[in-house]
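User: Need the bound-state model for LHQ:
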Amino acid sequence: MFETIHYQVTSAIATIVLNRPEKLNALNERMTHEMLEAFNQAAQDERVRVIVLTGAGRGFSAGQDLEDLQHRSDDVSIGDHLRRGYNALVLLMRTIEKPVITAINGVAAGAGMSIALAGDFRLASDRASFIQAFIRIGLIPDSGSTWLLPRLIGPTRALELMTTGDRLSAADALAWGLVNRVIPAEEFEATVAAWARRLAEAPTRALGLTKRAFNQALTSTLAEALEVEAVLQDVAGATADSREGVQAFLEKRAPVFTGR
Ligand code: LHQ
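Assistant: Bound-state model below.
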């Protein structure tokens, strides 16, 4: 069904693989829309409790396909191209109430870096690197980088990366707090799978609500955040998983969460 990505659901884990390895998974219009479709499917599929996004071959994604950009019809401005594709995708990744892991197997450049940053958990192979490539071609950071990057690594380092276009290694990305872990390439797939399994067995509704509260708090006052917590805790407290968590604690056994 998809041409530019692979999409598969196994054991509550939806895996989306960007699949244009010969171009380091550069993003053309079709790929962006297939990703949107896949994320929407994963959001709606009740079997899915965690989503993993990764790249085939040696790259995660080299960002906008520059050949495709050059052949773009003049009818659609760059701004509209962003609004219809990348902006919708990044917003969806941040608002889906299921955990999203970006498994950054190789270079993530331009919009590819923005999409990597939009994951809730960012796991990098030791072969990964990050480039705010926009400035190298006379553009500004887009697809959420201006918002996400300073929040993750602070304004000083973010602006330096954005204005130099220098490559950030996986090791520095870890030291700067851009990624959760750096994993040796040989162990990458197995480690990502273990993270995905752990999240797939967690109380999915509570994870989703945590994500909502966390994201809202990034732009709210303390008073607003306290109120959001109170409202959403009512919802979390009424879930089957919350009942199971409390019951399991009292019975001194491991909880079995179903995601409901
Ligand atoms: C590519 C690409 C690519 C096409 C590698 N396109 N072919 C902007 C404007 C408008 C709308 C929406 O969004 C955006 C946001 C953006 O994303 S702007 C930033 C776009 N991305 C870039 O400028 C990065 C361009 N790529 C690179 O600088 C390098 O490829 C990096 C540093 C990522 C990797 O370098 P290498 O490891 O040396 O690989 P390579 O350059 O040899 O690339 C391998 C192949 O992939 C090569 O094709 P070839 O046929 O020669 O083997 C590249 O042409 C192709 N490729 N990125 N973005």
